[in-house]
Amino acid sequence: MLTEDSPLVKIAGKAAAPALEKNKGLRTVGDLLDFVPRRYLPPAELTDLAQLREGEEVMVIARVARATTRPMQRRKGQMLNVVLTDGRAELDVTFFSSYAHRAKLVPGVTGFFAGTVGRYRQRWQLTHPDYELFADDDDLSRVEDYRSRRIPVYSATGKIYSFKIRRMVDQALDSLDSVREPVPEEIRRSRGLLDRTRALELVHRPRVDEDPEVGLDRLRYDEALVLQTILAQRRRAAEAVPTTPRLPRTGGLLAAFDARLPFELTEGQRAVGEVLTRELALSRPMHRLLQGEVGSGKTVVALRAMLAAIDAGGQAALLAPTEVLAAQHHRSITTLLGDLAEGGMLGGSDIGTKVALLTGSQGASSRKRALLDAASGEAGIVVGTHALIQRHVQFADLALVVVDEQHRFGVEQRDALREKNARPPHLLVMTATPIPRTVAMTVFGDMETSTLSELPRGRSPVTTHVVEADKPAWVARTWQRVAEEVADGRQAYVVCPRIGDPGGAAEGAAEGAAAADSSDEEALDWDVPDDESVAGLELTGVHDMLAELRAKPELDGVRLGLLHGRLDADTREQTMRAFHAREIDVLVATTVIEVGVDVPNATVMVVVDADRFGISQLHQLRGRVGRGTAPGLCLLLTRAAGGPAAERLARVAETSDGFELARADLLFRKEGDILGARQSGRASSIRHLRLGRARDEQIIADAREDAFRIVAEDPELRRHPALAAAVAMRLDEEQAAYLEKG
Ligand code: ADP
Ligand code: MG
Questions:
Q1: How far apart are CA 165 and CA 154, in angstroms?
Q2: At 282, phi and psi to the nearest 5?
Q3: Residue nearest atom 20 in ligand 1 by C-alpha distance
Q4: Is residue 292 lining ligand 1, measured as CB closer than 6 Å?
Q5: pLDDT tens for residues 67-77?
Q6: Could you tell me if the CB of 433 is within 6 A of ligand 1?
């Protein structure tokens, strides 16, 4: 008997099953049913090859007569030319990126091709058509299907074509008695949800245009419910281990600090501060995410919470993603505290404290000093990078952990830090990437969130322009603007996507750049790669850029500096100091300056090869300018002409609303990337939901409400065995290992 738990081999056979598991992660029949079509082709008449017209959308069944590859003249790579025949007439097919197609489109194979007819050298042709190859002649009898209904197209893999997957799905749907129903009936009724069997039928074998979306909505709800149930259980578990309440103290360090603060806190800073003080005083560990635009003043908020922790006799740790940022935090916190940072003993009558810095590459003696201060409790605040979480770093009594710019920090690291105390420390995570509600509810769904939405007064707006790099006059104007700002006593950043070679040669690793993901097998299979217009171009490195700027007459006399991740920590620190001290006018850097760097006198940023950066990343970057009283200017240099890359840049230029951009970013990216461990430090296993989409936001919100209620009433899910099974399965999946930790 076939059930959802049956291994896929029962349907796919010994040849296909391992490939489906390896490439698509499908192990069971249930997994296969959850593997929904990438898209659907409309039912249509097949086109007669002898009757083609230019510009016409066609669908043909034809055989590959000839196939040849040849190198392209202007770009890297091989181009594939295929000649199709239906026995009477011929049609050419061209692929500019031939890699994924070469092995499939060999003479003799027959398939179904869809595309728009063009004319080239007196012949008809399709460029990058969609196609499905038929495994054997038997498939030809299914041609009738193409005429009568929407055709599901599955993401193919290797020799397993979409068409074949479709037949497996058909077989599964026909032979399963029933499918598991994870949604409690009472919820199904109140939310008006279809039953799951029906939903799968609509998704895999639609009859009318609306069917797939209707079915998918139900699958999205399922996915959301399972995720939210996991989050609800995790939240319960985190709250189950009590911690030490850290009570506020009158006349303490925090009060002294507030009294000397050189500016007035914004309304938001004050309000979040109150929430934090309240939660620190609870025996339930705080688990809070603080999000706020670049420059909204999160550091002060975090510092005040740290001071409250010290007032209560504990210590605080501040984790930064880079050494540059750790050093800067250490510097700015020390400056903000003034003589309060020269304090003596923790908890003594003297309210001052000590701020220690601990990084991976500092000298042995300063490191030893810092370790000692952390372990003895003399340092109330310990600032550091991941070096902070190494095993031999000890604290006397760690009360609060603040993680800055969390998207660079993995979950494991945070866990390791939390384990540094007998009772779990309170945790505050700060992120400058505004988090759309869908992501807040899923990726960070086990945390409470606070938002700083207003910027401190006197902040200046940043104007952003896209500069086309192939227009010499625009480029010249760009560097002229930099020169003008420098002449006005201002400073500038020039950001490049890679380091490159000091010698100026082409080799070298990219650093942190969001390079277009054109190696994605699926993209090659069915889509024209996203950034065709820039795919083959060499990325500009900081070394080359520096040399180029040195040679520019308009920048004569301008003092240039260089900053990237491969420099040793001392050099980086020195360079940042020199930039702060205005000894450097223009800093040529990689994305090491992306997060948190704060030099108010810097007013211009030029981003080179801006198309290689993601939307949110660009928004982060430009947040480095306009931090003082003078308006900021951000110039995005690009060689991308049109296409999604240019569109992304246009979005960044036209809006400064971080939330809107974060949302656009989600929609531009491929789903697989959304919860990518790289970005969020969390697992990426969202299948049906599309984060960032308004419709899915409602589904997630509904499921969240339902899941938290279910878990509150029935924490072990004893009365919901099907949901419990779905949760277990999800957790079982490889990546869910992360989810469990949070
Ligand atoms: P971010 O939220 O990007 O981390 P920072 O905490 O680095 O922002 O703050 C940016 C700058 O704004 C710092 O120089 C900080 O001292 C200053 N700042 C913070 N709060 C205020 C305020 N309420 N009024 C004026 N300046 C402030
Ligand atoms: Mg910051």
A1: 7
A2: -95, 160
A3: 297
A4: yes
A5: 999 888 777 78
A6: no
